[in-house]
Amino acid sequence: MLKPLFLSFCFSFLSLHLLKAQDEIVKDSVIDTKYREDQFYLGATYNVLINKPDGVTQSGFSIGLHLGFIRDFPINNARTKAIGVGLGLSTNSYNQNLLISDNNEEIEFSVLDGSQVDFSKNKFFTHLIEMPIEFRWRNSSATNYKFWRIYGGFKFGYMFRNGTNFKGDLGTIKIINSDVFNKLQYGLTLSTGYNTWNFHVYYGLNTLFKDQVIAKQTSLDMSEIRVGLMFYLL
C-alpha cells in the first residue's frame, strides 16, 4: 500500500518540477514581437555596360564589390513588410576598349582597334558611397531566421573617386578623379532569394559619363547593369 502511494507522490512531485522548469524556460525565452531585420550586406556583381557606342566592347571580367548596413522599418503588424534604408560602399571596374586619355589637360575618348593598337589592360573604375532604399517583403517571423525574401528599391550613389588605367603600345596612361564622370549615380535594385543567398540586379538610370562625344560626334551615353549575388547577414 505504501509503495504505490510513494510512487504516486514521486510522480506528482516530478511532474510539478518539470512543469515549473518548462515555465521558467518559456519566461527566459520571451519572443520578441518587435523584431527587425537589420542587416549587413555583402555583394559581388558582374558589371555590364549598356548603350555602348559602335565599336565599344567589353573584355575580361568587370567586377563590382558592395558592402554596407541596412536599417529595417516594419510597416505591418506581422512585420513581413518593411522599408529598408542603408549606407554602404561600392567599388566597380569596367574592362573595355574605350581609351580615355588626357591631351593637354583635355579628356579625349577613342575606340581602340586591336589590329592597330595592342594593349594588355584598359579599364576605368569607380568608388561610391551608396544609399539603398528598399521595399522589403519576407515570410520571416520572430523565431524563423531562414526565409524567402523579395527586396525591390532604389539606390543613390555618390562617386568620390574614379580612375582609368591603360597599358599597351601607347605606354601607360592613368587618370585619377576626372570630372567627365557623373558623380551622382542612381538606379533600380532587386534582391530575391532564400536565407543568406540572394540574386541581385542593379539597373542604372543615368549615364556613367557627363555629356561627352567620341569620334564622329557619337554621344557617349553608356550606363550599366550589375548582376550577381547579395548576402544578407543579421
UniProtKB/TrEMBL annotation:
Outer membrane protein beta-barrel domain sequence ranges? 29-209
Reading the lineage from the top rank, the first entry is: Bacteria
Provide an example Pfam family for this protein. Answer: OMP_b-brl_2
Q: What is this protein called?
A: Outer membrane protein beta-barrel domain-containing protein
Species of the source: Aurantibacter aestuarii
